[in-house]
Amino acid sequence: MIFNGKQRIWSEYQKEIPDDHYFYVRSCIRQNFFPASEKTFLDIVQNRLGLDFFETEHHTTCGGIAYHSDSIPQETLMTIVARQFALMTDAGYKNYVASCITSFGIYTETLETWRHYPELETKVRESLWKATKREFNKPEYLAHASDVIYKLRDRIATASVNRLVNKKTGEPLKVVEHIGCHYSKMFPSKGVGGAEYPYVLTGMIEAWGGEIIDYPERRHCCGFGFRQYLVKANRGYSLSNTHKKFESMKPFKPDMIITNCPGCPYFLDRWQYVISEMEGKTYGENSQGIPVFTYEEVAGLVLGYDPWDLGLQIHQTGVEPLLDKMGIIYNKADKYKL
Amino acid sequence: MIDFGYSLTSSSRISLDNINQKKLKKITAVEPDFLKCMACGSCAASCSAGNFTKVNLRMVILLLNRGMEKEAIALIEGCMLCGKCTLVCPRGINTRNLIINILKIYKEV
After folding, report:
1. A172 shares a domain with A111
2. B6 to chain A: which residues are within 8 Å by CB?
3. Statement to judge: residues A94 and A185 lie in one domain
4. Of B5, B6, B11, the CB nearest to A243
5. Could you report the predicted ipTM of this complex, rounded to two decimals?
6. What is the pLDDT of residue A2?
7. A183 with A130, same domain?
8. Interchain contact, A236 vs B13, CB within 8 Å
């Protein structure tokens, strides 16, 4: 009886994720911050696992940065989103997968808005037709790219070359997982595990041999917060948010941080450098930082990709301590080659 | 150290694990009613010194429980020990005795 009850409650936190046939849309900021992540994702799903993921060069920004910075109104945003859906419709796909957490939040928000206010959808359809002569169907399924990797985590584990294990001691690596706020905090039912028990990254780490750290500020924002960072006068607030997280996780001695958002790895990575310059404080072993990764980069490392092909040289905090712990062989000089 | 044009504000988060409980235990030993306070604020509202200074016993008890000793002592130093708060305390705490002992114990070197 109790088991059934728990099973029933947990079922509310599950998310059905289709196996194949996705229309993939990139993130505008990730291509600058961590350019190899999306390339790695497509290489894993298309070439390694032989799945159907389609992308088009006609795709543009979702408008999320401008919307969250109060630069454009929601109706403009919805028309941009409608155009992306039109591209998907033209390509003949029904499953829509976004690389970016902000985009995922924007698409979810738009679809929910249209569900509650159908007249807005009609208006946006008219605006899109007037502007571009395009029509669209709404996606049958909306996923974030981390949902797909979560779904494929066991297949990746089976094909793995490296495990998230300290090769010298044989102990699992201690991993901090950080979920983007717009993944599960805005619309909890749209993310694996909801807002209370987000499992999307934890599932990956457990499948690949790592151990998750549960620290007090685990669900705290990374500090990006759009205007908190974009307006320089507010930037100290962004930095202080990240500082709070690092102070909280430090006693647990994490080996690495994994995130599924464009902003989070950027700020958790870059602010470590800023804190070290402002306060002379570092959070990793031997006065080094804690390496921060996107989930695609971690999947790539597990599958045996060369670290410099994964773009790890773009990171501000050096990743070598983790590569050494995992026993990954790499050429130090290649880090500085184009 | 580099000035980036913005500053870092440390978190005001309090870890109860890091608080020195020794002095708090001493206070509780000499005035066990310390634990009875329900933070109603009657003491602060009726305080003679509170009109002119920052004396606020309710806040002092809260700060001591949070381990913020310096801030607490700064709030209680202006107390004239008139004892009005003892008269109004709905939990019957001997606030005069409590204040004297807080000042004794927390000002120890």
Report:
1. no
2. 232-233, 235-236, 239
3. no
4. B11
5. 0.77
6. 61
7. no
8. no
